[in-house]
Every structure is written in structure tokens, then in C-alpha cells.
């Protein structure tokens, strides 16, 4: 194997593919990236056995076709630190990978290509295509609420629901839930519900942009595959039953107020400085036209803020983990936010005034 | 701040007292509750005749039997002790809801706001003693004082069957003559340090500047400064938060290798499960194992987890055992519980 390529052509696919490679590996070969150069181009593959990402790019010259696996992170760090516009040649010499650029030379270890695992080809039953911007929006709007290492393993991921003319994502960690739906020009019968593991979601969104260019999805029994131009992403699916979001969205809230989103976010961020660092509790005092936000910590330090709101109705005092509220305010893209409350022990509903494509449910804290 | 009235009630040699109540023939002979010599046990409680021989709690049984060869040793009936303890705690609660249990046989009561007995702490103490003896046959020693640590010292002052009151106007005189050794937190090491400094009573302690005490004892220096002046602002904590639940065994014969340790695990986990059940399966934060090797060196190892899983404990055990790789005297398994305030975040009805 021998080829040369510009630093810029290599760097983006390499960075994305290396993102999939875990720092600590059980199998040594999983720390490596698979380079495969052919007539039609160079492909780079990284995997952790759950998520696999293949990136394709064009070498400037291919002298000899072939494949090799080399340490992903080291290769990326070397390419990153070479000067802009460097031309890099890459050759396999006596089982070692030699990388040359200008007056630099690096010799990297390799592991046999045959040891490199590939996720078996999905028996694709359903194929469909979405605008990249749609899928990116849905993931950005909900992925923050995914659980991390929860014993309820099916929460450590995001539900992707595909039905005719509609796509929906749902994520929850058991304390808060995010759901977002968008219409889409797709035909799926019957409706499909898949749980993409947390890591897969975070890697997939990196491949997407705000454009209307298509991302094509292949849904298999145990895998999902996404193609976007130069990348092929494959993820195992979480086998489990995701909770029904409709049961969780509160219906009975009678205290509805509207606030300026940016202003409320700033107020909460400032107040959070003096909340308990571990539990992050803040107290909201809802009054006609005014929301008071208070926090204190074990050192007996206190923060109090007042923010003007649109509200008429009974007063209410309720506690929240301030991070859960800030997370929601960060992803809503409207200037104003509507919050619906019932009582101090019931969940709050946050959304765009009058309701948008996303809904956020946050359980309170007892303070 | 209103002067507080704190009672400290302490059952006299509780486990032994329950046994003697149910079998009066044990009353005048030295007897103790504790683990057997073969099982390398220790004394948990003994009666006064046994104490006359120098036997005391936490002493290895083997040593106790050397001091008092005709000591009657009972294995203990902890379910019975627990039920008697509940009866006594119920009496405390008839007086006030501000009860802080320290163990099965000991509690603090804040009776500042109690109007019964014309608000007299002495009469309340007398009533507790009478009711406990009448309803359970167990004698209490009660101390009354304006602060927790003084109430505790007072209950010990005239033990057994004692009643000692330190009235607010007596605190200063009482504390001045109090040997520093009686202060909570002054064990052999600190006592030796204080002795070196020529400090024997709290009076001596008061003459020592706060700076010197802090330089010598760190944070505890500040505590000493307060205690020597009769100051103790600690409140009665009604709910003592349980931080962990565990089960452990000292083996009759050392477990020679890891394999034997692993086979001992299921029985321990079974007991841990039973205890978890008794406490209503509280939320688990971490799992841990404890290993004491034949040379008495101790190691513990923990990992986060929410469920009692045999595999996880087996892993922890082999890792912990490898630290010394020698025969094992004691094995323990346990869970650390999620702190109550973290449970204040409510969960979605998923």
C-alpha cells in the first residue's frame, strides 16, 4: 500500500472516524483505524463494536492499492500538527506504516487487517431518506436528556420513531424527558421505533448539517445505517422497550407563564452559582407578573433574582434541578418560553408559547 | 437562645440485662454476651459481676475467659434485644418526638419544650427510669444537662441505675473540675498529648489559648476549646441517616485461599439481602467488600452499582484478595446508600 494525500483531505474524515475509537479498549485492534486505499479512493474505518464509522476521501495519488490498520489517535495527532496544506505520503514498509511529509517521517505500528472487526452487513428491510437538517434538529433538540449508564439500559439512548409523514425523537433519563417531532416526506408502514445507543447518537449528529441534502437510513433488525455523502455510519440498536412519552407529558397544569428565554436562562445561570454544587436545587416562586428564583448552598450563601413574566393566577413555590431547566432553555430556538405547572410535586412542561415541535417535561425537586 | 434541656438515657449493660431479666439465675454470676473463643469472638456486653473481673465490652472473648474462667458466655438473641429496645424507644417518644437514637440501648432526648412534669428535667428522667423498669424490667441511667455531651457524661456519672442532673447554673463548676479524659473525642492518644501539655482538667484546658489548641489538635482544638467551657451546640438529630448496610463474618478457621473466600460469598450475600429487606430496600449507591487477612491487615474495595449482584461482589473480592494474597480472617460485603438529599429529585412516572 502506498499513496499520498493532502493534509486537508485526510483530516476531517480522520477526526470523525477517530471519534468513534474508544480511548480504552479490550481488543488492541479497536484502537486502530483501518485505512483501505483503492482505485476509487481511500476509506477510513473506526469502530468500538457498537458503532462503526466509515469515511471516504480522495488521495492525490495512489501508487499501490492495499489496506492497513494504524493507531487512530496517534495518526490523527500527527496529521493535525503538520503544517497546513502539507502533502502526506503513506506507505506500508515491512509491516510498519511510514508517514512522510516534507522533512518529517513517522513510523507507526500496524495490526493485521484481518483482525479488524466489521459490523456485519445489515439485512436492510427498510430504506428511507430524510433531510439532514431535519434529523440534526431532532437530535439536537432531545439528545441532552439521554441517560448515562443507567441500569435501565434502554434509557442510555434515543428513541427514533419513524412513521408515515412523521419523524420523532424522544430521550429521558428518568428525571426529565425531551420529545421533538417533525413532518417528513416518508412512507413507513408499520411505524418503526428504534433505540440508538447514546454514543451512536452523539457520533451520528457530528456527520449532519443544517442542509436539505439527504441522509439515507437503512433500518435493520438489530442495526441502523446512515449514509451522508462521504460517510457511512452503522450503530447497533438497543434491544428494549422505550417508555411511552405520552404517559409522561403532563396534561393538567393550570399555571401557565411566558418568559423571555434568554433572560430567564441568564437568571437561572447566575442563581445556580450559589446552589448546592451536587444537587443543583433552585426554588421558583411564581407570582402574578413576577418569577423569583432563589438558591442557597451548605455554606449558607444565597442568591435571589426576580424576572418579569406574563402570568396571572395563583402563586406557587416549586423546586428544580437548575441544570435541567437550563438544558431546555439552551435548545429551544424561540425567543420566548412557556412553562406550565400544576403543583410542587408534579412535572413542569416547557415549550414554545402555544406549543412548538418540541416538548420538555421536567420533574421538580423537593426542597 | 433558650437554655436547652437534653436527656441522655442509657440502658445498663443492656443485652446482659435482658438475659438476666429472663433468667434470674444469671444475675449474681459473671456472664457476658459475645462470640465464642473458637469463633474468635469478642465480648459485646457483660454484667457487673463480670466487670468486677476486669471484663469489658469489645474485649476478645479469649482474654475475658483468662480473666474470669467461670464466665458464662451467651451467643445473644438480637431479635429479642431489638424488640425490647423498641419498647424503650416508645417510652421516649411518649415524652417527646425529639429523640435521637444512638444505638439499641442509648438515645438523646430534647425536652426543652416539654410541659409535662412542670417542665422539670429531673422528674422527666425519673419517669423514664420508672416506666422502663415497670414495662420492660430494664434499668436506665439518665443524665440531664443543657448540652448533649454533658448529658452523656451525666448519664455515666452514677451508673448503674443512675440519675444525674447538671443544672444550667452548675455547668461552669462541673465542667471546671471535669477530667479532660471524659470529653468525647479524647481517647488515649489525645489524652497523652494533653497530659504532656500539663492539662488534666477542663479548668487547665481553659487556660490554654485557642491558637495553641488549634496548632496542636487542628479542628478538634476548637472543639476542645468549646467543650472546656460547657459549649455544645449540636442539635438532636431525629433521623440518623443510615449510610450503609453490610454483613460480615469472622471465620472460625482462616479461609486459606481465594477459592474458599469465593465459596463463602453466597452466605454473606444472603445475610446482606435479609438486612436490605429489613430496611425496606433503600436506594444503593455503591457496593463494597471488606477483607481482613490473618495478619489483621484490612482492605476494602468498592464500586458504583445500584443492585446487589453476586458477580460484582465476586470481582471485588478477587481484586481485594489479590492485594495481600494470604489467608483471610474476616469477610464483609455491603452497600453504601444513596444520600437522602439526592433522592429529593422526583422521578418521572415512566
Structure description:
The complex is a heterodimer of chains A (367) and B (350). Chain A is of the alpha+beta class. In chain A, 19% of the residues lie in helices and 42% in strands. Chain A contains 7 helices and 25 strands. Chain A has helices spanning 7-20, 72-81, 132-142, 198-206, 245-248, 261-272, 322-331; strands at residues 2-6, 32-38, 41-47, 51-57, 61-64, 66-71, 87-93, 96-101, 104-108, 126-131, 157-163, 166-172, 176-183, 192-197, 214-219, 223-228, 231-236, 255-260, 281-287, 290-296, 302-308, 316-321, 336-341, 348-351, 358-362. In chain A, strands 6-2-3-4-17-16-15-10 form an 8-stranded antiparallel beta sheet. An 8-stranded antiparallel beta sheet of chain A has the order 14-11-12-13-25-24-23-18. A 5-stranded antiparallel beta sheet of chain A has the order 5-1-7-8-9. In chain A, β8 (96-101) and β9 form a beta hairpin. The longest helix of chain A is centred in the N-terminal third of the chain and has 14 residues, at 7-20. The mean pLDDT of chain A is 93. With 350 residues, chain B is an alpha+beta fold. Chain B folds into 3 domains: 1-166, Reverse transcriptase/Diguanylate cyclase domain (Alpha-Beta Plaits), CATH 3.30.70.270; 172-227, DNA polymerase, domain 1, CATH 1.10.150.20; 244-345, DNA polymerase, Y-family, little finger domain (Dna Ligase, domain 1, 2-Layer Sandwich), CATH 3.30.1490. Chain B contains 13 helices and 12 strands. Chain B has helices at 14-22, 48-51, 61-67, 78-95, 121-136, 148-157, 171-177, 188-196, 202-207, 210-217, 219-227, 258-278, 310-322, and strands at 6-11, 31-34, 43-46, 72-74, 99-103, 106-110, 140-145, 163-165, 244-255, 284-293, 298-304, 328-337. In chain B, the strands form 3 sheets. A 5-stranded mixed beta sheet of chain B has the order 5-6-1-7-8. In chain B, strands 9-12-10-11 form a 4-stranded antiparallel beta sheet. A 3-stranded mixed beta sheet of chain B has the order 3-2-4. In chain B, β5 (99-103) and β6 (106-110) form a beta hairpin. Chain B is globular, with a radius of gyration of 23 Å. The mean pLDDT of chain B is 90. The chains are: A alpha+beta (367), B alpha+beta (350).
